[in-house]
Amino acid sequence: MFLMNQWYAAALGKELGPRPLARTICDVPVVMFRTETGKAAALDDRCPHRYAPLSAGECRGEIIACAYHGIEFGADGACTLIPHQPNIPPKMRVRSYPFVERWGWAWIWLGDPLRADPSTIPDYAWFGAAGWHSFQRHYYVKANWEICADNLLDLSHTPFIHKKTVGVPEMATIPVETTVEGDRVFQRRVMSQVVPSPFVAEWGGFKGRIDRRATVVWEPASNMNAELLYEDSANSIILRLTNPVTPETERTTHVWFAWSRNFGSASDADPMALRFQEQSYAVMAEDVSFMEIQQQGLDRAGDFQPVAIRADATLIQARRIVERLRQEERAQARRQSA
Amino acid sequence: MFLMNQWYAAALGKELGPRPLARTICDVPVVMFRTETGKAAALDDRCPHRYAPLSAGECRGEIIACAYHGIEFGADGACTLIPHQPNIPPKMRVRSYPFVERWGWAWIWLGDPLRADPSTIPDYAWFGAAGWHSFQRHYYVKANWEICADNLLDLSHTPFIHKKTVGVPEMATIPVETTVEGDRVFQRRVMSQVVPSPFVAEWGGFKGRIDRRATVVWEPASNMNAELLYEDSANSIILRLTNPVTPETERTTHVWFAWSRNFGSASDADPMALRFQEQSYAVMAEDVSFMEIQQQGLDRAGDFQPVAIRADATLIQARRIVERLRQEERAQARRQSA
Amino acid sequence: MFLMNQWYAAALGKELGPRPLARTICDVPVVMFRTETGKAAALDDRCPHRYAPLSAGECRGEIIACAYHGIEFGADGACTLIPHQPNIPPKMRVRSYPFVERWGWAWIWLGDPLRADPSTIPDYAWFGAAGWHSFQRHYYVKANWEICADNLLDLSHTPFIHKKTVGVPEMATIPVETTVEGDRVFQRRVMSQVVPSPFVAEWGGFKGRIDRRATVVWEPASNMNAELLYEDSANSIILRLTNPVTPETERTTHVWFAWSRNFGSASDADPMALRFQEQSYAVMAEDVSFMEIQQQGLDRAGDFQPVAIRADATLIQARRIVERLRQEERAQARRQSA
After folding, report:
1. A336: exposed, middle or buried (C-beta count within 10 Å: 0-12, 13-18, 19+)?
2. Which H/E stretch holds residue C199?
3. Which stretch of DSSP H or E encloses residue B42?
4. A vs B: CB pairs below 8 A
5. Which of A49, A42, A45 is nearest to A57 (CA)?
6. CB atoms within 10 A of CB B232
7. B200: which of B15, B92, B196, C139 fits an S-S bond (Cβ 3.0–4.6 Å)?
8. Rounded Cα–Cα distance for residues A81 and B172 (Å)
9. Is residue B333 in a domain?
């Protein structure tokens, strides 16, 4: 079950334009587009006339026109034209969703529109900020969103799944500290005077040992941000890995991958940046294939109860918060139907 | 739900021969063949012995033999031979269906055989009549049969779906007149002194403006015939488009496309005829892809109620008749089981 | 429904090694491997930690390690290492199944482990015995295991399905004698002074007519062995065809094909042996494609009741025994849950 009263990263701002973009979020088929005057719109992807997908149609000016009979709708879902007749029946309208562009993503709210408060979108203010360079990408994963979230919150798998790419054996045993504040979960991992990887050494210009601090913040429905700080007495660099996780269906998920850095060239075509991106693709490919075989295992598992280990502490806290929010949403639904 | 007490166009007569033809009609797998003496047969496509499909077997003379153990059945479904034993158990027989060849099609009746009256097969007497040239083709559509029927009865979509082929903007707004007589729906659209399309002008030898009359007749379960008459003071030509629609399953349909003309060369290889056929294929391809995305939309739509526009008048009448017949079949079923 | 208190041929012994082998038996996903000291192991193919398939992991020494977090398990399913912590929770273990190597196969027991008695594995003692040469192969069939068993027990189909390979018309009518002893079904077919096929004549060195005796023994869940004896006054040769049938799911089956002979060269590369194998492949391909279309027919058939013929006598006895064992297992299950 999905949490509906949440903002979900549904698209990159740069994906939106006059060409309709169809994407399913939490089982809701949505068509997204940007009007000529720049408005970002998210509507139910279904013409109320005869259930054709609006995404098969085309945008012109401020409207989207259905491909089947040419019926037109504005960014707010109101019908503006039925070519065959002058009057427009009141029921001829499409549901539109709160849709806010922030930090390079367009965030959709599928739940109760009265609760849609854009100030609760996660604060990733460094996207687009001076001195920061970011890169964002969409992954499509054939696994449940909580399996994807678990994977992102669990770094103890690194030496195993990623042993051919970024895994080092110590990662399995470095102690982490997990804390909960309200609906957020924090994980910290501090290492002092360690030898940096060649990559970090080159990028930070480090000559010897460094201090390293990794801070993960998770907030619901499932947005993970990991800040990796590397420093010695001369220099300090920060890398941030940001992963909004957006359910498509119970068995498929949009996983967003972003990285931001306060060092190096502004260009994504910088050789070091390209190297980092290539490595990220390889690492994500390992994770994605694993999330998918986990889903297959879960599909066959029936009422299987996982046995936890200590390294699961962070993801268990996150799952508890999701479970509490799920119960709150159920209780709200009961109150509304009572 | 299908209407079962109806004749459905199941095959072209020319598809029937000694090679068994397997086709599913209204969820019933049927094997069709023609015996040596020319009898057209439609049987359940399942050997009563061990449920092998009879269509995997072969026809010889007046029988079809199962490929598994060589058991043979006549066109009436009676078992004529069990190779391993002299006696034939009374239960060893296959259900055969009323099956009538008319107008180039073989029509099957899957419902109560006592109600199977061939005089209720739609009257398309011009197929094969002197002065008429016809062409028939099968389309397979991954959409419910009523979606297909709607598409054929709704010409207001022409300027939109078919804008690259046969669509002209006026089609959206030309008024149509819908009338109902018994179980039939009629739609008329008359235009006086209009400029013919280059195609119609060339085929009819029209030099200037013409009168145009389009008459659509629909009858259940879903057989649509459109007669297009073009005339000036010197000449008059008629084109007929005939579309029996035959359900395969709840989500897939056999759509027959036929055209008949009382003008031009008798040959399908006539350059004008070839041009018309090519255009028909392009137009049908546009319709088929649209019916299929509509079905996908409907699958996701749950209990969605479409909002009607005026141009839906004809198809709404047809749907009402289908609904009434459905209720009559349900009432009959209740009476028989009571 | 499967019989669970049975030994099923799950793998060839030679398939087992350090590379994990994943196979589903009776809907249970199993990982099989052989440890460094030669132990054959069959475990649930699912890590209890986070439901990753163990078959994605790797075997080292006496253990299999999960690919996700490196958790290790022995051949008995006990956890031997969690890399992230010193203690091992008691629930961290995988179910292991009784698994016995015999006659070239490894046999698994998925039911009540207290009932797993290896002496009830079918007695195919000639596999590996002096003077006998055997060959074993796995077929994957998209049909229910009882359809596969029926096919193997029913030789009356030979003249029809196999008319291009081994079928001769007489096979349809040669009388067979079926007898039942306990849970076993026997079928005998004796022919005196018949002309041997060129193949049998060449292999047995027969110059004239021979006697022929075919004895089929079936025992549950479904293991079929056919002994074909050919002899004249000078020589006598035996060919045995052995087919353990192992359900994968309700609609898919592992069919094992083995042949053993007490004549000819020991090598599988012997020209006569190669000829026999090639013919077997062709014959099995005909059977497999037929079992699969039968399954398709059955899927569409609903509550269809097959009409038996005399040639079905053997398979009907086998089905009765399966049905009785099924009821016994149901009764046991009720007693245990009471």
Report:
1. exposed
2. helix C198-204
3. strand B40-44
4. 72
5. A45
6. 17
7. B196
8. 12
9. no
- C94 and C169 housed in the same domain: no
Judge if C39 and C95 occupy the same domain: yes
Domain end (from A103, A119, A135): A119
Statement to judge: residues A129 and A69 lie in one domain? no
pLDDT of residue B313: 92
Shortest Cα distance, chain B CAs vs residue A53, angstroms: 6
Helix (H) or strand (E) holding C180: strand C177-181
Output the pLDDT for position A299: 87
Q: What is the CATH number of the domain that holds A83?
A: 2.102.10.10
Q: Residue C298: its pLDDT value, please?
A: 86
> Closest-CA residue in chain C for B27?
C300
| Cβ contacts of C264 within 8 Å, gap of 6 or more | C133, C203, C270, C272, C273
CA torsion A282-A284-A286-A291 (nearest 10°) is -170
The answer to whether residues A97 and A141 belong to one domain is no
Q: Which of chain C's residues have a Cβ under 8 Å away from the Cβ of B53? A: 293, 296-297
Query: Cβ of C71 and A161 within 8 Å?
Result: no
Contact A50 B156 (CB under 8 A): no
Q: Which has the closest alpha carbon to B68: C194, C289, A210?
A: C289
Instruction: Tell me which of C24, C50, C66, C248 to substitute to probe the interface with A (most A C-beta atoms closer than 10 Å).
Output: C50
Length of chain C, in residues: 338
pLDDT digits (tens, 9 = 90+) for B126-165: 999 999 999 999 999 999 999 999 999 988 898 898 888 7
Among candidates C172, C306, C310 on the partner chain, residue whose Cβ is nearest the Cβ of B50? C306
Query: Is pTM beyond 0.80 here?
Result: yes
Beta bridge partners of residue A224, listed in sequence order: A218, A243
Name the residue among A68, A239, A248, A240 with its Cα closest to residue A143: A248
How many domains, chain C? Answer: 2
Across the interface, whether the CB atoms of A294 and C46 are under 8 A apart is answered no
- Is there a domain that residue C333 lies in? no
Question: Are A151 and A279 part of one and the same domain?
Answer: yes
Centre a 10 Å sphere on the Cβ of residue C140 and count the other Cβ atoms it contains. 11
Q: Which residue on chain A is closest to B287 by alpha carbon?
A: A68
Are A153 and A295 contained in the same domain?
yes
**Pair C23, C16: CB distance under 8 Å:** no
Minimum Cα–Cα distance from C300: chain B residue: B29
CB C309 within 8 A of CB B82: yes
* Residue in C173, C293, C307 closest to B92 by CB: C307
Q: What is the mean pLDDT of residues B237-262?
A: 97
Which of A51, A53, A82 minimises the CB distance to B309?
A82
User: Residue B334 corresponds to which tokens in the numbers above?
Assistant: 């209740």
Domain boundary, last residue among B119, B139, B160: B119
Other C-beta atoms lying within 10 Å of the C-beta of residue A337: 6
Tens of pLDDT along B263-318?
988 888 888 899 889 989 999 999 999 999 999 988 887 777 889 999 899 999 99
Find, among A292, A300, A290, the residue nearest to A251 by Cα: A292
Task: Give residue B320's domain range.
Answer: 122-328
B245 contacts B224 by C-beta, under 8 angstroms: yes
Considering the domain boundaries, does residue C321 fall inside one?
A: yes
Write the residue in B46, B53, B83 that is nearest to C172 by C-beta.
Answer: B83
Cβ-defined contact of A68 to B161 (cutoff 8 Å): yes
Backbone torsions φ then ψ of A234, nearest 5 degrees: -95, -30
Same domain? For A135 and A78 the reply is no
Which chain A residues have any C-beta within 8 angstroms of a chain C C-beta?
Answer: 150, 156-157, 159-161, 172-173, 290, 293-294, 296-298, 300-301, 304, 306-311
Check A56 against B293: CB less than 8 A apart: yes
Q: At what angle do helices B313-337 and B145-153 cross, to 10 degrees?
A: 150
Q: Which amino acid is at C179?
A: T
**What CATH number is associated with residue A207?**
3.90.380.10
For residue B168, being part of any structural domain is answered with yes
